[in-house]
């Protein structure tokens, strides 16, 4: 079973050369219109959704996104407007695995009102503030007569994220109080707050962002992100930090060391009070890392049995286009370079079959058994049955969700933290640069058919941690308290 193998690759028939960015309002407008048109066409030509029988409205939905993007693009006068128009196009597509991604920051100076906000539960709070600002912990009630949640819908979710996903509120709604120069919105001016039963109002003073803002922004939704590795914060409690499924070589070595420790001393973890899997900071990447961890903790055969039972009806339809075939060939070579020759061989075969499908004129190469599945044997319980806590951040999507799919197959797993984000069924993306040099198009290569987790489905934690500070110390307190009840 080939799961998500890599977050994305950079592949194009010709990688775009660095070009001079637009200088005049007319040039910025032209770049916005041209890039939206090109992104639309590349997506239409390569995206699995174009020919997905389960999604007959895909092409018309994509055309509506283009229409909205071009309407915004026609009003662009500068780099900030360009960015907002492309972001509006992305938001209309409504899939984190499609649209465009900016290749470099534009010149616009971001501003903030002297505080950073954070979403917890169903409300917005002041996470941290400069002297004289609203006190940390203050609830933000409304701005300019609008409820802050309504303001998030119009000013933020119209350009990024998906408001129907609770996890997206954790990571995205706070951008109400970030000014990226979007000319199509009205920044909040006067806001009301409440704290300790008292209400007060403040006029916001917007100023260029500084290092405090950058640090607080990251901490406001991730907390203190730990490096990849397995530690023991107290006797018999083990903490596996997995902040990144796109690891560099030192991180890959740290992952391998975790697996080796789990396999070398299974009795140590079988006697543990708990094992904590910490996904704070994780935005996805390759699902191989979480699969290997699960096999080392619960056992190879236990994971294999659960996957056979859960995925018996799932197929993978690979979209056969020239660019997609080239990407999968590149992917096989990348896996070879990472020492995953066993996986690379299967990927290389997928590329071969995609090419044959392309030559036949088929739109897809399908993997998975097309016949009704045979009766599945009863799944045997894993020998590892100690409590497992998985810390879920709001931005958990893509391969991070694949990790939750695997971990939650076992009844000793409990999710804590935030609601996750969600995926469509379109996966395994590649990037293709556009001639402007400002953005690259995000193109998924495959679609899952019959996946147990539905398109748009997210995970809700059994224990939602709404502390403003997502510190390791606070999570330890939550876990210790829950262990006393088990």
From TrEMBL:
The lineage of its organism: Bacteria, Pseudomonadati, Pseudomonadota, Betaproteobacteria, Burkholderiales. InterPro entries: ClpP/crotonase-like_dom_sf (IPR029045), Tail-specific_protease (IPR005151). The keyword Signal applies. Residues 1-18 form the signal peptide. The keyword Lipoprotein does not apply. GO terms for biological process: proteolysis. This is Peptidase family S41. It comes from the Bacteria. It comes from Duganella sacchari. Residues 253-427 form the Tail specific protease domain. Pfam families: Peptidase_S41 (PF03572). Keywords: Signal. One of its GO terms (molecular function) is serine-type peptidase activity.
């Amino acid at each position: 079973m080939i799961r998500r193998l890599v977050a994305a690759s950079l592949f194009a028939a010709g990688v775009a050369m660095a070009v001079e960015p637009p200088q005049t309002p007319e040039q910025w407008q032209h770049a916005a219109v041209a890039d939206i048109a090109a992104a639309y066409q590349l997506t239409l030509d390569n995206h699995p959704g174009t020919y997905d029988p389960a999604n007959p409205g895909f092409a018309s939905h994509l055309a509506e996104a283009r229409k909205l993007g071009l309407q915004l693009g026609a009003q662009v006068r500068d780099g900030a407007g360009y960015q907002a128009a492309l972001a509006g196009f992305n938001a209309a597509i409504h899939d984190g695995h499609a649209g465009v991604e900016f290749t470099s920051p534009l010149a616009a100076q971001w501003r903030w009102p002297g505080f950073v906000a954070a979403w917890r539960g169903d409300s917005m709070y002041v996470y941290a503030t400069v002297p004289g600002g609203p006190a940390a912990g203050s609830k933000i009630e409304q701005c300019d007569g609008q409820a802050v949640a309504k303001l998030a819908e119009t000013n933020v979710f119209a350009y990024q994220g998906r408001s129907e996903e609770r996890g997206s509120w954790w990571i995205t709604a706070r951008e109400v109080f970030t000014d990226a120069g979007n000319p199509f919105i009205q920044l909040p001016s006067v806001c009301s707050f409440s704290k300790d039963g008292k209400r007060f109002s403040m006029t916001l003073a917007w100023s260029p962002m500084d290092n405090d803002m950058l640090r607080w922004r990251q901490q406001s939704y991730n907390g203190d992100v730990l490096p990849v590795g397995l530690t023991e914060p107290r006797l018999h409690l083990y903490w596996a930090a997995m902040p990144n499924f796109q690891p560099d070589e030192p991180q890959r070595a740290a992952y391998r060391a975790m697996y080796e420790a789990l396999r070398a001393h299974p009795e140590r973890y079988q006697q543990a009070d708990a094992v904590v899997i910490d996904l704070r900071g994780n935005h996805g990447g390759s699902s191989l890392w979480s699969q290997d961890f699960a096999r080392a903790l619960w056992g190879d055969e236990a994971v294999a049995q659960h996957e056979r039972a859960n995925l018996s009806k799932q197929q993978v339809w690979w979209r056969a286009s020239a660019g997609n075939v080239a990407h999968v060939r590149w992917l096989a070579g990348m896996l070879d370079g990472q020492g995953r020759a066993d996986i690379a061989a299967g990927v290389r075969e997928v590329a071969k079959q995609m090419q044959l499908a392309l030559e036949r004129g088929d739109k897809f190469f399908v993997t998975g058994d097309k016949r009704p599945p045979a009766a599945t044997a009863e799944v045997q319980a894993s020998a590892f049955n100690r409590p497992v806590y998985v810390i879920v951040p709001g931005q958990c999507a893509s391969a991070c969700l694949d990790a939750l799919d695997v971990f939650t197959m076992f009844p000793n797993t409990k999710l804590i933290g935030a609601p996750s984000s969600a995926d469509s069924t379109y996966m395994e993306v590649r990037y293709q640069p556009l001639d402007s040099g400002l953005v690259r198009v995000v193109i998924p290569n495959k679609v899952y058919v019959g996946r147990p987790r539905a398109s748009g489905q997210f995970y809700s934690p059994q224990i939602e941690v709404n502390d403003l500070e997502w510190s390791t110390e606070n999570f330890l307190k939550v876990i210790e308290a829950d262990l006393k009840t088990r």
